[in-house]
Specification:
The chain is 31% helix and 8% strand. It has 377 residues and is α/β, with parallel strands linked by helices. The protein has a 5-stranded parallel β-sheet with strand order 4-1-5-6-7, with helices on both faces. A two-stranded antiparallel ribbon has the order 2-3. It is globular and about 55 Å long. It has one domain: Rossmann fold (3-Layer(aba) Sandwich).
Length: 377
């Protein structure tokens, strides 16, 4: 995902080291505050175990979006220009046995996701390169448009050109006014690329990064300069509220777009799998604990077993929007992006939705999504 140029040099520090500030309270109507306790907790079995359900038959699979979709930092780099990594959820889906071997079935896979991409970039430099007849398309986008980088600089790290309150008010206004319209346009144009009748778009939201119910993080700060800003419960709650607000707008846009667009809400699983920062009995920073699903600073990735294939370089991918943040390494840029286990979780939740759609097409009963095994082993 890209930090807009207008935000300045320091605002580009990372994609989504997000706000933890008490200066903004978002409206909470229609935005769930707690985990849905009606769902059974996911069991903790092998990540890539085959799930029961129909096999998925796609001739043309496409992945577009930002650094979450590109898999920044997860696994091994495939394309340094766009920060695409082989353990991205889209690449994991393409290599999953439920889709069959790509070469054997002759499936086309266009992975055009690119770190730094705004919704406009996705429209102009990703969707525009896709051919018609896409059977399944995954999308993650919208976070950059909100301006997370500027919020991080002003509200967490303690520096930035714009005061925290003003930066957050700008984000709030954008989410409320511009984001719905922009998402509607995105999904309308993307839908035109689908196979008529059977093609589907699977658009994801983002994960809340904090458990806001615990207290042991109340004295923790990740501020780099200026006044110390603590990750106390109030700040974590307001941060999480922002993510829920963005996710709600994405979900509403998917509903407006029609049955060919499915919103994939994996956020619940990040909490149910104890994968966030400040989980119970975790004393931060603890960047290498096995259940952690997102990168912290100075943390390592989690190897998958078996690892994802490196995949094939796509000519179209070399033409998509590029991010050039040469003064920061990917080990810094990946902070607060999903680790490989987080990408696998997202892949399995998307796959469960894909299988539910395949079951509907074939007149079969789809297994409840909450019964799928997605947590780390």
């Amino acid at each position: 995902m890209r930090i807009p140029r207008s935000l300045g040099l320091l605002a580009r520090r990372t994609f989504i080291m997000l706000l933890v500030s008490g200066t903004l309270a978002f409206p909470t109507q229609n935005i769930p505050r707690e985990l849905d306790t009606s769902k059974s907790p996911p069991t903790k079995r092998q990540f890539n175990s085959s799930l029961d359900g129909p096999e998925l038959s796609y001739n043309y699979f496409a992945a577009i979006g930002d650094s979450y979709a590109a898999g920044l930092g997860a696994g091994h780099v495939m394309d340094r220009n766009c920060k695409r990594y082989n353990q991205s959820y889209a690449n994991l889906i393409n290599g999953d046995p439920r889709l069959g071997d790509q070469d054997e079935v002759g499936r086309r896979f266009d992975n055009l996701a690119c770190a730094g991409a705004t919704i406009r970039d996705v429209l102009e430099k990703q969707i525009s390169w896709l051919d018609d007849g896409v059977d399944a398309m995954t999308i993650t986008t919208g976070g950059n448009d909100v301006g997370f980088g500027a919020i991080v600089d002003s509200c967490i790290f303690g520096f930035g050109r714009t005061p925290c309150e003003q930066t957050m008010q700008t984000a709030r206004t954008y989410i409320r006014t511009a984001l719905p319209v922009t998402l509607d346009r995105l999904l309308k144009i993307a839908s035109a690329k689908l196979t008529p009748g059977t093609g589907r778009i699977y658009i994801t939201g983002y994960a809340q990064f904090f458990n806001e119910a615990t207290t042991q993080c109340d004295s923790v700060s990740i501020a780099l300069f200026g006044r110390k800003k603590l990750l106390d419960q109030s700040h974590r709650a307001r941060y999480n509220e922002l993510i829920r607000y963005v996710n709600a707008e994405i979900a509403h846009a998917a509903g407006r777009a029609g049955p060919q667009v499915i919103f994939v809400d994996y956020d619940w699983y990040f909490g149910a799998c104890d994968g966030r920062l400040c989980e119970a009995d975790v004393f931060e920073p603890d960047p290498n604990r096995p259940n952690l699903l997102i990168f912290e600073r100075k943390g390592n990735d989690v190897p998958l077993d078996p690892p994802a294939m490196m995949g094939k370089r796509n000519f179209l991918a070399s033409l998509t929007k590029r991010i050039r943040i040469w003064w920061l390494s990917d080990s810094e840029l990946r902070v607060f992006h999903p680790r490989s286990n987080g990408q696998r979780l997202i892949a399995n939740v998307v796959l469960s939705h894909m299988q539910a759609q395949a079951a509907l097409f074939r007149g079969l009963d789809a297994a409840p999504l909450s019964t799928h095994d997605v947590c780390p082993a």
